[in-house]
Fold this sequence. Notes:
By secondary structure, the chain is an alpha+beta fold. Helix content is about 30%, strand content about 25%. The protein contains 13 helices and 22 strands.
Amino acid sequence: MRQVGFGARSNGVGMKILLVGGGGREHALAWALARSASRPVLLAAPGNPGIAEHADCHALAATDVAGLVALARAESVDLVVPGPEAPLVAGLADACQAAGLACCGPGAAAAQLEGSKSFTKEIATAAGIPTARYESVETEAAALACLRRFGAPVVVKADGLAAGKGVVVAATLAEAEAAVFAMLRDRSLGAAGQRLVIEECLTGPEASLFALCDGENAVLLGVAQDHKRAGEGDTGPNTGGMGAYTPVPVMPPALTELAMARIVRPALAEMARRGMPFRGILFAGLMLTEAGPKLIEFNVRLGDPEAQALLPLLDADLPDLLHRAATARVAGLAPRMRPGASVAVVVAARGYPAAPATGFNIGDLEPARATGALVFQAGTVRAADGGLRSAGGRVLTLCGTGADLAAARGVAYAGVSALRFPGGFWRRDIAARVA
């Protein structure tokens, strides 16, 4: 790998960065990278209208591995920062390494931690990581027999990547059986649902823990809690996330360190033992049970919308942090968060997550920004007349910061109230239980 990390750019000064992706998480990353005093030069592929305020955007798909590497080489990029999981599962980090490019993300073998839920369970078992009891199945008969053994409530998961739609928490066996038939018989999730993981239903609060990893070492980035259900009061279908907040009162520092010690670091050690070291950002989805934190899932990147909540409080140079993870220099780091709190509220398009409507006009965003809220764009596009239009399920994320969660929540919802987006909806109870 090209050692760009020890000259003038080793602390991010003048670094040229290619950001991969075009959603709300990537807009938050672009915003945070651009704020660095080191003044990095940003490119993005494909980007979106919000990201274009900070970066030179290129019309390349996030999964166009060859195109991304060619762009990075042509532009003499110092660091590639993948936002979503799909390019990592497709081997972007491996291709970058072969081309002598630093990439803050795991190779395809290590990205199986998100690409395959059965692989994650295998790693958890080998490493002694506390997690739910489970079975992997590939046929309807095996799945139905497993459901009878587990009973209800029970969780049915598609093994592969399903854009946040591959998990069904079934209150009854009938619901679980319907999920099995949809995935295995009707192929509702395509190849992602050809294998299933069925597991016991854990109970307790959930938390999302993020660690910066360099293959051997892991340091805490932050903890957030998201809201997965589309409807208020945690009702309706699962989504990619309707909002998030930090800090998480049920996840104090002692419990966070316990999760790092029992879940994150053992996983890192097991991956290294297998010859597939994990570099980048490891996202541990946790259930805080009466027996302590247990692993629900691993993701191999920042969460969305957790990134939008966490990054505004990060009190560290983000280009330097990500470059150190990419070049195996995380040991000894202690990234800090600013005092206070942050709340992120997602504004989604009508019909999300099943069939989001697109093409709605999004009015001027300046009134929302004038409230003090940060406005991160996700599913947006510029129309021929220069106006902003909706072009996806999750369209915007409004983030507020403040001295505490109540203050941060007030700023976020003031921003939402100032929007003029008739095609959108949002939950009104993000962080309400803790503010």
